[in-house]
Amino acid sequence: MTSLFDGYRLGDLRLPNRLVLAPMTRARATADGLATPSMATYYAQRATAGLIVSEGVAPSHPGQSNPNMPGLRNAAEVAAWRPVTHAVHANGGRIFAQLMHGGRVGHPAVSGHQPVGPSAVALRGEVFVRFGEKTLPGPVPRALTTAEVGAEAQVYADAARRAVEAGFDGVELHGANGYLIQQFLSSNANLRTDRYGGSIAGRIAFAVEAVTATADAIGAERVGIRLSPGGRVWDVVEEDVPELYAALFGALAPLGLAYVHLLAPPDGDELMDGLRRAWPGTLVVNPGGQIGPHETDRADGEKWLARGADLISYGRAFLANPDLVERFRTGAPVRPTPDHATWYGGGDAGFIDYPSHQY
């Protein structure tokens, strides 16, 4: 029986175990998007994970969603990430950058740009302007023209080249949780009537173009994508979910990607089983799916391995347990999730001050 502690070959990478540090917004970058020494410490502390996927990284200025979000938009941001990737590699780890284009989930007060999206439809809700302090209603995004959609897909490829230059082992496109790629997949944020909307083939077209451009830029074996089938974060709604994602997987399968990373939907066992059958490559599953009351544990990961997942990603469990792999391996106690107030923004407290277990 496959174990969380078995090794795994992911493209050119040899992972020592099957635990993945899931991407989690921590908002500790500088105001102008530079990674910091504390971020290098944070990721290096968790380098025993088989693979680290970074927090969401802005691939362009209009694509910035959150305050204090790191970027991969220019030479200064590339240089700021190099100490982070070096620290992870020095500790024996492997790290992908998650490229996260917010689309309509953003605000000019954060990025200095009007958000863009598939259609001029604002999300119902408020977006963060300062974590823990201020939110504002989501603005109406500017609808991309047909010609601009292709250029926006290329934004991911350009950021991926900079990620490799910064020392990342690969990239993960954020196609989940209501951000730009899922906005195109959705039926309420995407009201287009051109080739990027309407039918299932139209709604998956942007995702396929963005992934293809990125694979062409740095090699498909260095590219993954994160998806949340049926997820409704940031006010997205998807119709015909099994058919939509089966079509997407069918279009992506010939590319030879590193992996698909799925957030398990609540009560979606039948859907997930179908998606596992539809995807021929490496499948990463996040058992927790959307943030809820249940924090996933070792048993949850082993359940999904038995159901066909290849790798298991953990988010909140890694926050207060930088040595989560060894805690799972040895049965040492897992420290509870820390206070929500320390999740986003702030200083080193609740970020890099959690010690490893004394074995």
TrEMBL record:
Pfam families per UniProt: Oxidored_FMN
Domain of life the protein comes from: Bacteria
Segments forming domain NADH:flavin oxidoreductase/NADH oxidase N-terminal: 4-331
Record-linked InterPro entries: Aldolase_TIM (IPR013785), OxRdtase_FMN_N (IPR001155), Oye-like (IPR045247)
CDD domains: OYE_like_FMN (cd02933)
Name of the protein described by the UniProt record: Alkene reductase
Lineage of origin: Bacteria, Bacillati, Actinomycetota, Actinomycetes, Kitasatosporales
